[in-house]
């Protein structure tokens, strides 16, 4: 009875959409077979088989049977038998996960060769040298990747044979030489792995397949997945394919090509070819490759066939494809294709080119670019023609191009900054202790950590350039050196880091402004001028313009900005913000104005407090006049003061020490300081984030909110008087109960009515609140009775839903959580759709049930995160609000979410 195939699929049985089951390589091989392209026969072992193997520690029984069936089919198609003594069929075994993944076992070629089939191959190919060379390659690859033997041992044995034969290069070795190498290799296998090189072809195949399965869990593969947020449980597929040979003489060869230029997008012939070679020779760079166009002269027929296949693939995939191929004695074989990787600039250009060629729609074009790519294009970058070679490469964690002196610690960073230098903080990894150093630096470089490491998260938050996880770096903070290979760099030496590509350079590299940034902030004419006639830059600007305008046309989500000052607001508006979604007014009290708040806190009587609050009204009024002027005509959500009061007071320990020192010296303590100390002690909270902040503060010290409300109302009157169109909205933070909002709202309405009465100007200022506590989301239906709008504060909502302190958690244990797969990304970066997102959805629904059409937005950091934006679109929000810099990214992603 036939077994239902679940683990093994002939190439003719799948298609390109089955990447989950067949892996990327397998799915695309199947697609090429469907298209009638010349793919060597073979089959794909599914990711299901891999998962079963990893779960049980052994291959499922059915796999053995299904492999036999598929293998026989392959043999029948090609008319030869696997590992047979005569005309042997040989196989390549290659890994192929859903996402291409360096760090996993790649390839074993020539599987099926042994002491007898090598003779059969020699006769078949009429080339004894080729056959023994193939056999020694098999033992080498098998030894290295399946048996985990140090590759250097094989390389050394080959070198020894060359020395013995008195030749300089591999191709000069004779068949007899290769026979000796094979014997030496077998001995290496025996010595190192403790087993004979397996002579049974099927044993070779089974071991190679299991080696691919095992390679899913190598340390490097796990590390890569963690960095790229690829789930750990996908497993890899294995592709088993009949060998075709590019090294059967001058009429054979192997190459790689792209259907269009992956850096410019231009259609044409891009690729490399190496005659009389196997795939790994191209990668190993043993000989110089030829430009693909040369193949036309060497072998016009294969070249024409390849061009036809390239066109067919591009027509079919309707995208840039990259291809691996082999020519065996004048016959073209397609070994692999996939959608080609490309630079951010090429992504935009290719997308609009394909539209202009009528191959894709504008909707599809929008799907071909991403907010991350756009943000890469917005940062200044190193001049492409600088000719400086990178010293090392890490992960580009926060884009930008920074040049500065190396510093190793906070003191070094601040001292050099004060002296006027630009500095780059170099650490093995960073922790919250390094914050002062980061603040003083133009960039941060770490040897360890991934894209959610402390350095990466903090740098992105600050909009500073960061390269993390550059493992080649040996950082010695005591010696104040960083070593890369043989290069030792000292404190004070200049380095340059590229936060987009992760490249690290020694010395100055010239930085150029991004023309796309000029486009975003000054418009297309200015950008075209800044392009200085460079056609590629002009083309890029046009592509970005077309796609961004299209996104603006199709998106439903509006995009606002989080901006606290008029300056930020102007910047946000230039970049297309349609309003302000969050003005954090507490930021207006930092710096010199801190003392105003201090006076409010220290006030002991009502009169004292009023006296302390009064001078704040004109100051705040002026803030709001400026902000509302900058946002004239656009909605401007002003949030009443939020943070714990101790943030405005001196540090408890510092102050206690100061007072104690004075006492010890027998000096009279400063009465102001004593008063301050008493206040700090009184207000000290174990969990300030869960303490007296937000609306709680507004209820405890009513004057604070009142003065802000008055200032907003008066600023509005002033601007209306000037014929402007101010559109303020008052937002109450940290509401957990409808009653809290109701009290504030009643007071606000009285104050606004009072301002109207004194000025004679009617005011219409919506009052709403943040939804940033689970209770607020759970009771949103009631809160909506009092709120005219909602704004989800997903920072606090994440903090309180998970119970993760947003200030500590990233450094404390996120690394472990990411390692063990509890998290795949920090929930403070990308919204946790299942948990926190559920509260958002509930809040929206309940709010709309009470108050149909209630305006709902989000102003947590997630408002600028691409994946989260797609979530907010689906959840039916009206707008997202993000940092001014992210506005273009949010516009693009909101458009992508809508198509
Ligand atoms: C939030 O909690 O998501 C929010 C926007 O407020 P803040 O970050 O100021 O607490
Ligand atoms: Mg908050």
Automatic annotation (TrEMBL):
Originating species: Nostocoides australiense Ben110
Protein name: Pyruvate, phosphate dikinase
Superkingdom classification of source: Bacteria
SUPFAM superfamilies: Glutathione synthetase ATP-binding domain-like, Phosphoenolpyruvate/pyruvate domain, Phosphohistidine domain
Assigned protein family: Belongs to the PEP-utilizing enzyme family.
Cofactor(s), names only, from the UniProt record: Mg(2+)
Keyword Iron belongs to the record: no
Active site: 454 (tele-phosphohistidine intermediate), 859 (proton donor)
